[in-house]
Design brief:
Layout: E1 2-13, E2 20-31, E3 35-39, H1 46-53, E4 61-66, E5 69-70, H2 76-86, E6 87-91, H3 102-112, H4 119-128, H5 144-156, E7 162-166, H6 174-190, E8 194-198, H7 202-206, E9 210-215, E10 218-224
Parallel strand pairs: 3-8, 3-9, 6-7, 7-8
Antiparallel strand pairs: 1-2, 1-4, 4-5, 9-10
Helix pairs in contact: 3-5, 5-6
This protein binds adenosine-5'-triphosphate (ATP).
Adenosine-5'-triphosphate binds next to strand 2 and helix 1.
Amino acid sequence: MAILTASHLKKYYGKDESLVKALDDVNVSIEEGQFAAVIGTSGSGKSTLLNMLGGLDVPTSGSVQIEGNKLEEMSEEQLTVFRRKRIGFIFQNYNLIPYLTAYENIVLPVRLDGKKEDKKFLKEIVNFLELDGKLSNYPSHLSGGQQQRVAIARALITKPALLLCDEPTGNLDSRTSDKVIDLLKMTSEKFHQTIVMITHNPEIAQKADRRIRIEDGRIQSDETVYETDSRVTA
Ligand SMILES: Nc1ncnc2c1ncn2[C@@H]1O[C@H](COP(=O)(O)OP(=O)(O)OP(=O)(O)O)[C@@H](O)[C@H]1O
């Protein structure tokens, strides 16, 4: 079942001779549980697409539907709440709040909703992401890989349906990148999340179930890797 559908998505910047068609009629559906990589050259429209899919920016025209909800029909306030509850964002620069500890950063989205975190779930995520013993550290006292794992924990704490990641390992060395991606893949499998991830890194794209290539604001190729079905049918 598709968890996310974008139909005839366009995003144009400027006009006349300075018109940039950052997205030019993109149609894409992402299946529940899929790990989709978005690849393409610099300036091809990857971040624009991710921002539209996550309701961080408004398309010039077209529609984005997540779990049956049309983003363009939501008010700004409804969209903010929807994003916080159903979508986890992970960015290249981690976007952690420097004056909050790792723990406070992780639980922030739950607290913003006026709720208390599920302690058992928090423990499970922290343990899984190997952040035990780091929770009282401020971001400046964590390594890049640890900061990104805090950002992943923050994205997971609300149990979102969808994780949108923009170059999540762009600032990490290759060994740490590998580990972060493997953890992200494992956590999303464990907690049944769908991932859409922008990456420049061909090795990371290889780990995805699907590779969507964007060029000049259009989907140029879209390749899904199906696992071999080893069941014996009678
Ligand atoms: N706010 C904006 N105003 C005008 N043009 C913009 C704006 N944001 C993006 N663009 C243009 O839209 C196009 C797509 O940009 P986008 O950031 O989506 O590319 P990208 O594939 O993510 O690139 P990169 O890999 O370098 O991050 C580019 O030509 C860019 O210059």
